[in-house]
Amino acid sequence: MSMLRNERMRSNSAMKRREFFIKWMKGLGIYTNFKKNMTILYWKNAIKSSADVAIASTGTSSTNWNRALMMAIARNGDRAAKIMVKIVSGQKVQSRKANTIIFSKKILRKSRLRFAKKEVARYSSSYRYNSVAIERRISMLKRIIPGGEMIVNEVRLMEETLDYIASLQVQVDVMRSFVDLVEVDKF
Amino acid sequence: MEEPETRFRSGGVGLKQGEMGFGLGLDEIHCLIAVPPETGNSSYSFTALPELPPSQAVELLVKEDFTNEPIATQFFPTNASLIDHAAKFSVFAPTDTSMESTTIMSALGSRKAEMVKQEPLDSNSWPNSSSPAFSNQSLNPTKRKHRDKQLKESNKKNKKPGANEAVVSSDEKLPYVHVRARRGQATDSHSLAERARREKINARMKLLQNLVPGCNKISGTALVLDEIINHVQSLQRQVEFLSMSLASVDTRVDFNLDCLLATESGTSIENSNPGLFVTPIWHDNQMSFIRQHQHQQPLQFDHVQHQPSWGREEDAVENFVATENSPSSYGSPSNSASRHLSHLKMEL
């Protein structure tokens, strides 16, 4: 029984890796078709954005960080980035909504900071035996995870981090092995 | 404040989704509204919404009436290892005959325990047969909380209207959790909700601890969160670093994806004739795609260095893609590298 599970896990993650790799390469191809001479920094940005969009769109997900990441890339990127996001992820990113979400994030953050002290309710719905330290860490986690600041629910935040860490692991693994494949021998 | 992600469910809206099978004339049966798959939020209602249970639900306590319908994997769709961990963390606590206390089954992705409250009359049977249990209970239609009280408390509080609700909900999907109060703990709705919530959070934390390396030994939420944050940051930095190194290795890469997709079969094709595939277009001669196998054959690489050959690149890529099917073999090929090298030598 556990053997089956292990095999399932392995094939699952292998599929995920393959899917990520293909999407990533597709994104890179879009960039190279778009721009002829790229500086190294631009190319690095292209690689990173392609990888991010690829991992964000890999695997079915109901998590929030996927969409937030893709929207951030489409919003801050240039034309090539927008096209890449649209093609690789297969979803049209609505820039209007992204803008409003970005703006409201800041407003939310400020208002939440202001109201944080006033919320003393013991039986508020997000009550936890939290000390200040834990609150600080949770807010830091929210900042790190894409789209995390919108998440109020702590349980949801935990699930997002779980999924995010797993996907990041896949991304790093595939990228590292690709670098191993493609590196110039320095000797 | 209402966040877009959560919904505060209030009121007595209840859809009768399944029938109870108890047939006791329970008028106000709280049926569960199945959470639509896209939202997947835990709401602010007092019931502890379990997240989506995959089919490997731990269902020790689920009665036969409930159809165990797996909700499509939502949160951790592809990482079955997480589900594995989740299954490990489910806590079973079959009650002893005195029905003193039970622990709440908290497992991510597993259907949480539905412990149907048993009436004092029906003492020692396990929840599965608790059908006559609800004859005396008063059900508050407005509250959707499903709580199972303890034996003693329920005896006392049975008279109070609306105080106890042990509602059995039969449903196709089970977004609600029946939580049994422990002995000696407060049983009002708030604390129960919070306790269920805390249990869920702790379950997630355990999963996170397993995922993040080196977190198992740390106790205490703050330090664990520190480790998690460090791990996420380090992974993000690694992505940056790897993309920078990739960018510095080759300025332009033009892949012909056909050759990549031609290896979908997953077999190692590195021996095959490169002429069979469409040649990729190489932009630079800076790229030398050599599979480095440092321990074994470092010297052979010297004269192979700066001579890009199309076939080599294809082979390398195919090898790479092929080895992706066996994720354990990253970066350390044994046979394939030697064959690869022999192929390289033949070309020169």
Helix and strand succession of chain A? HHHHHHH
User: Which whole number gives the mean pLDDT of chain B?
Assistant: 52
Low-confidence segments of chain B, ≥5 residues, pLDDT <50? 1-26, 28-78, 89-171, 264-316, 322-348
Level of helix content of chain B? 25-40%
What value does the Rg of chain A take, in angstroms? 20 Å
Percentage of residues in strands of chain A: under 5%
What's the oligomerization state?
Answer: heterodimer
Category from helices, strands and their pairing of chain A: mainly alpha
Apparent shape of chain B: elongated
* Average residue-wise pLDDT of chain A: 80
> What's the N-to-C terminus distance of chain B?
70 Å
Q: Which two chains touch over the largest interface?
A: A-B, 80 and 90 residues
Helical percentage of chain A = over 70%
- How big a fraction of the residues of chain B is strand? under 5%
Strand arrangement, major sheet of chain B: 1-2
Topology:
The complex is a heterodimer of chains A (187) and B (348).
Chain A: H1 2-34, H2 40-56, H3 65-76, H4 79-89, H5 95-116, H6 132-144, H7 154-182
Chain B: H1 80-88, E1 147-148, H2 151-157, E2 179-180, H3 189-211, H4 221-249, H5 257-261, H6 310-323, H7 335-347
Helix pairs in contact in B: 6-7
